[in-house]
Amino acid sequence: MHITALAGGVGGARFVRGLRHHLDTTPGLEDTTVTVVANTGDDITLFGLRVCPDVDTLLYTLGGGVHDGQGWGRADESHRVQGELAAYGVQPQWFALGDLDIATHVARSQWLGQGATLSEVTTRLAARWGLPEQRLELLPMTDTPVETHVVVDDGEGGERAIHFQEWWVRHQASLPARRFVVAGLDRAAAAPGVLEAVRRADVVLLPPSNPVVSIGIILGVPGVRDALRGTSAPVVGVSPLISGRPVRGHADACLEAIGVPATAGAVAGLYEDFLDGWLVDPADAATTLRRGRVEVFDGPLLMSDVPATARIAEHALRIASSVPA
Ligand code: FO1
Questions:
Q1: 40 CB less than 6 Å from ligand 1?
Q2: Are residues 123 and 39 located together in one domain of the fold?
Q3: Residues 214 and 241 in one domain
Q4: Domain at 16, CATH number
Q5: Are 154 and 232 found together in one domain?
Q6: pLDDT digits (tens, 9 = 90+) for 196-254
Q7: Is beta strand 2-7 parallel, antiparallel or unpaired with respect to 33-38?
Q8: 94 lies in a domain?
Q9: Hey, which of 63, 131, 171, 284 would disulfide with 136, CB 3.0 to 4.6 Å?
Q10: Residue whose CA is at the smallest distance from ligand 1 atom 1
Q11: Are residues 226 and 169 in the same domain?
């Protein structure tokens, strides 16, 4: 069996880690391969280094090196380099880059500078984190540099665009977002293997990632949405909301910016043209009605630890085998 998942950062990475745990501990499913297509709209160049937060969160989480409390960055991290940069007055300081993490960005930037594509670089980084041995393939959604920007009020009656990370990390999504603009997305091509991974999958999963700035950005890569509509595989999504709120992150602020209510039903509506099954938390079951052909199921969605997350993944796979694709 082959599973393809579209993922953002923390929620996507934790879900895929649970999925892999379920596959590895279930007789007959160990050989299942998983392709993860990662959002790259969060990418940013800082201190001359290319930083790919969602790709790195997936690498570290699946490779066993993540700072579990934060959900991103490396465990046992130090911040001596950024401290030294601060002493030089080098900005920004609102985005914490640890010393071990910086090595990833140096390696990536060096290889990109030598002419490697982001896919090739990601494959090299994934090898260091042991992903192939776990039958995990990690693909950036595109090799074209894309960056999500957030249009906010400029305080003088006009508007200005800031990088997504500045809005998310520096301002904690507290500046009302007028809209998201993804520089480069309309001209981007899906990275090698991405469309095939959707088309040849036996199951496609949408982990509980941000529906606007993670999954929504991947869906904006030309060809991805059509591949999802055309795949013969069942497509099953896991709601990122519990009781209408994101467990972490700012999905509610993102949904508000695009005029979509923060409800599990409204999020399913964003995927209605290709989704077959939608898994919501029991807290949202009563208010989530079947939408068109999308069948709704409920089960606990709190990813409190790896075994609990594995049970959510198992439920998603059971749904995949029960819904008509
Ligand atoms: N998130 C934060 O809230 N604060 C940070 O300083 C921060 C630094 C950071 C560095 C590398 C990295 O890969 C991720 C980092 N994140 C940080 C997380 C991240 O930028 C966001 O959670 C995502 O981009 C949204 O999915």
A1: no
A2: yes
A3: yes
A4: 3.40.50.10680
A5: no
A6: 999 999 999 999 999 999 999 999 999 999 999 999 999 999 999 999 999 999 999 99
A7: parallel
A8: no
A9: 131
A10: 169
A11: no
Residue whose CA is at the smallest distance from ligand 1 atom 12: 53
Does the beta carbon of 251 lie inside 6 Å of ligand 1? no
Contacts of 199 (CB under 8 A, 6+ apart): 227, 230, 231
Closest by CA position to 140, among listed 156, 152, 126: 126
Last residue within a domain, chosen from 184, 200, 234: 184
For the chain, what percentages of helix, strand and coil (3-state, to nearest 5) are there? 40, 20, 40
The protein residue whose alpha carbon is closest to atom 4 in ligand 1 is: 169
Nearest alpha carbon, ligand 1 atom 9: 96
Q: How many CB atoms lie within 10 A of CB 142?
A: 28
Ranges of H-type helices in 95-165? 99-113, 118-128, 164-165
Residue 156 sits in the same domain as residue 177: yes
Q: Same domain for 157 and 229? A: no
Residue 170 alpha carbon to ligand 1 centre in Å = 10
CA of 53 to the centre of ligand 1 (A): 6
Return the residue whose CA atom lies nearest to atom 3 of ligand 1.
169
Based on the structure, what is the number of domains in the chain? 2
Instruction: Look at residue 324 and tell me whether its pLDDT is greater than 90.
Output: no
Residue at 253 is within a domain:
no
Residue 9 Cα to ligand 1 midpoint, Å, equals 9
**Same domain, yes or no, for 191 and 293?**
yes
Is this structure's pTM higher than 0.90? yes
Residues 175, 268: one domain? no
Q: What is the dihedral of CA 65, 310, 319, 219, to 10 degrees?
A: -20
Residue 222: give the domain boundaries. 2-43+55-65+118-144+187-246+261-321
Asked, for residue 316, whether it belongs to a domain, the answer is yes
| Inside any domain, residue 85 | no
Q: How far apart are CA 238 and CA 246, in angstroms?
A: 12
Tens of pLDDT, residue by residue over 244-287, are: 999 999 999 999 999 999 999 999 999 999 999 999 999 999 99
Question: Does the beta carbon of 9 sit less than 6 angstroms from any atom of ligand 1?
Answer: yes
Does the beta carbon of 8 lie inside 6 Å of ligand 1?
yes
